[in-house]
Amino acid sequence: MAAPDLIAHFVDYLRSEKGLSQNTLASYGCDLDQYQEFLRQSGQSLDTAGRASVVSYLVWLQKQGRAAATVARRLAALRAFYQFMVRERYMDSDPTDNLESPHLERKLPRVLTVKEVERLLAQPDPSTPAGLRDRAMLELLYATGIRVSELVNLRLEDVNLELGYVRCFGKGGRERIIPLGRMARRAVKEYVNHARPRLLSSPGERILFLNHQGARLTRQGFWKIVKKYAQQAGIDKNITPHTLRHSFATHLLENGADLRSVQEMLGHVDISTTQIYTQVTKGRLKEVYARSHPRA
User: Fold this and answer.
1) Domain residues for 16?
2) Count helices and strands in the chain by DSSP H and E runs
3) Which of 51, 171, 186, 198 is catalytic?
4) Higher pLDDT, 109 or 232
């Protein structure tokens, strides 16, 4: 089997056996394509490269100025690929076996204050279909902490406004149910009743949030929407849709939510991923103390 086919075969395996998202599959494919090109320049191929080749590639990435997180992600892709190669008997041994990932500095997520969130949510114009849609999306994102990819893929039947919950499918197709607060429920109800019918172009369309053509709104499209409203609200921070997810988790923990519940709502498999938000809340407590205590 030729080298390019090995990558395609591996990606097909991830799609069918692991149920990974299209974005994750594309990332694996791009990472492996670049690694294959690196090998090709030294006369090697994916199924003949050894440990020295993998190490040389990682060193090359570091010399290119790639961040430790990027190098670690590339190594993770290579590990998964070579484990697949050994399992499928294209190779006898795994050249990434026992290779250590570069040390990662865990950066604290950027979050908004409650007042900044309120300013952001107040920006959409409720007199237009797009404004009602945008307000519903922002309210829902902050109310549930779901990922933007999960948000744009929501279907009408995934949101129960009567009982107040959202059903979404996260990484690996894992389903989770998240409570939906009254403000978000009201915003979604107004959008569904008054704006979505005006955006709808195909009566059979079940996607909840639609663009002006009546099709699914893209992740990139919503990213631009968030940027626009952040600018209108005078928020200087460089925010993305994921900032609302970070803010959701941080504000819950600041107000007494337990870590396990936040983990479940965010859809984190490992609680250590959720624990990063406790560092944010500790940092904010220090700021409050420094501002408020007379002998700080």
Assistant:
1) 3-87
2) 14, 3
3) 171
4) 232
DSSP 173: G
Residue 179, strand partner residues: 165
Would the pLDDT of 237 be above 60? yes
Q: Which of 28, 35, 82, 277 is flagged as catalytic?
A: 277
Q: Do 203 and 60 have their domain in common? A: no
Catalytic pick among 79, 110, 216, 242: 242
Answering whether pTM is above 0.90, one says no
Tell me, yes or no, if 228 is annotated catalytic: no
Is 268 noted as a catalytic residue in this protein?
yes
CATH number at residue 183: 1.10.443.10
What mean pLDDT value characterizes the chain? 88
Q: Catalytic residue at 242? A: yes
Is 194 part of the annotated catalytic residue set?
Answer: no
Most confident of 46-50, 70-74, 127-131, 280-284: 127-131
Return the DSSP state at 195.
I
Alpha carbon separation from 126 to 129, 211, 217, 248 (Å, rounded): 7, 16, 18, 23
Nearest of 147, 167, 171 to residue 157 by alpha carbon: 167
The catalytic position among 147, 185, 196, 251 is 147
